[in-house]
Description:
Structural class: alpha+beta
Amino acid sequence: MPINKQKIFVGLSGGVDSSVAAALLVEKGYEVVGVFMQNWSADFGGCCNLERDVADARAVATQLNIPFYVWNFEQEYRDKVLDYFYAEYAAGRTPNPDVMCNREIKFKLFLERALKLGADKIATGHYARITETGGEFKLLKGIDEGKDQSYFLCRLGQRELSRALFPLGGLTKKEVRHQAKELNLPTAAKPDSQGLCFVGEVNIKELLKEKLPIQPGKVVATDGRLLGEHEGVVFYTIGQRKDIGNIAGGPYYVVAKNLAANELVVSADPHDPGLWRQICLINDLSWVNKKIVLPGDCEVVIRYHHAPTKARLEKIDEQTIKTTFAQPERAITPGQLAVIYAGDELKGAGVINQVL
């Protein structure tokens, strides 16, 4: 086995991806340490999978013969991720907590603690790639288009990328499953996790109801007809089709939310013009390396797994960019991340602030 003196702390989630990431690093001769980040538990209203996930992560570490630790970030996760999640919905926006989790927990708290304990780098099971040329780091899409997770890493910069490894970026999901089976890892057949980062599959509306008050209001059609009643516009998102209030017929799609009037505007037409817009403003900008030259052309992804769309970017001020898409996009949603790409390279990101 080759010997590499670098010490790598791997985030072991108890899933197959992080398990294979750790195994590949062990094979390459790194000094590997496994860490399970406990960010969500029963004490915080968590799901019942925590003990199983910890046990699976520990079993993988035991099989790989690497040290294993559980680090508790529950309070920080609640303060940095969940409070943001609730506040954004309360303001009528639709946030992406997974992006915030990566920025505040995995590539901040986890990274900082690992470095203090002697780590050279950290590694995760994300499907993304990092390249380095002349001391400058680039973040690239994973080669598996169906699993690429660079979108969720859009807030990382040079410091984080210089200290990160993504062993799965050059593999497909099928290859990762095959590797896990060949290595006889305990997680080889474990289903992929779904839902929110560290929370799993949850009913978003029910989760929000734990913190946000129910405020019944009108559901109206785009022509102003009263259709029924909802439980509060903050519980809905643009483009949503399922579970839209107490109304007959349908299906209906959320076209707009009037927060001031607590009114939900819907349409039975999935191609309603109100759902399709061509211009939005993005702010709270961040760049992986250098700011792109504006005005300029690029590709923008307005939500995870949404197809990249050609767009023209124009500077409004230091923290606001006007984004004009080559063609109308469906359900551009305030609060979501607009992620900027040049081919496979992720250049930067901003929060969708206003749809015009």
